[in-house]
Amino acid sequence: MRTPRRQLNLLLAVLLVLGIAACGDDDDGGGGGSASGSASGSASGSASGSPAEEEDEEAAGGGDFCGSLQAFNAAIFQVQLEDDASEEEIAAAHETLDPLWSAVEESAPEEQAETVDELGATIDALGEGDATGFNDDATSETYFTMLSEVVPDCVEETTEVTGVDYAFEGVPETLPSGPSGLLFVNESENEEEHEFIIFKKAEGDARSAEEILNDPATQEQGPGEFAGAVFAQPGATSGAFVDLSAGDYIAVCFIPVGGGEDGPPHFTQGMVAEFSVS
After folding, report:
1. Per-residue model confidence as pLDDT tens digits over 224-265
2. 1-278, which class in CATH?
3. Whole-prediction pTM value?
4. Hey, where are the domains in the chain?
5. Comparing C-alpha atoms, which of 29, 34, 24 is closest to residue 198?
6. Are 41 and 33 in contact (CB under 8 A)?
């Protein structure tokens, strides 16, 4: 489960261009959101769905699907399983993720059961030393699409952001602190993939996103504390959990223009946004 051409599973991946390393552990982590497990600011694994959602799931014999999914999502961003991962690394990933996904499977509502089973098969394969399906681009697309369907029902507030060539539209000046959701719509007219990678600025850093991204130190340290990620194919809508703490943030698309490896990253064409969380 990872973003195409990225090495940090489950879509994450971040900072391929500039050679920036995904940095920082936050307080909570969450799907697409605080991309670092309960450790990085995204959809907190401990966060649960709304009361109405929980009642619906329990009625379907599901349990806490939202909470289980967010817990998994938090952990997935802590797992770095590259294409050349060793058998030991694959086994360790399975040991971490399998019990969390089992909880998702046990609580999944009927309408998501087939997708959950499909994704679960790629995690089961890790237990046999096979990471092919887990790392397949189609797996991350399936996962993100599922999140777009369930996120609005799992959190109280969801923000919709649109990616165009080359800008983010609909990013509010202020996002809510705590668990919330993102829907990312890719309206590329050039059949370009887009991503919305969130970083929290260092406390007291008043520089603009452009200044931060043009700072040579950024290439070594990253543009801030990683706080969330979501990726969408052209014409698709993807979802993410985030759990953001108060502060100032930037969002960036690092995918190269034209989709190749050598084009300038989208943020150099203006695909950058800034917002605050309070």
Report:
1. 998 989 999 999 999 999 999 999 999 999 999 988 778 899
2. mainly beta
3. 0.77
4. 1-278
5. 34
6. yes
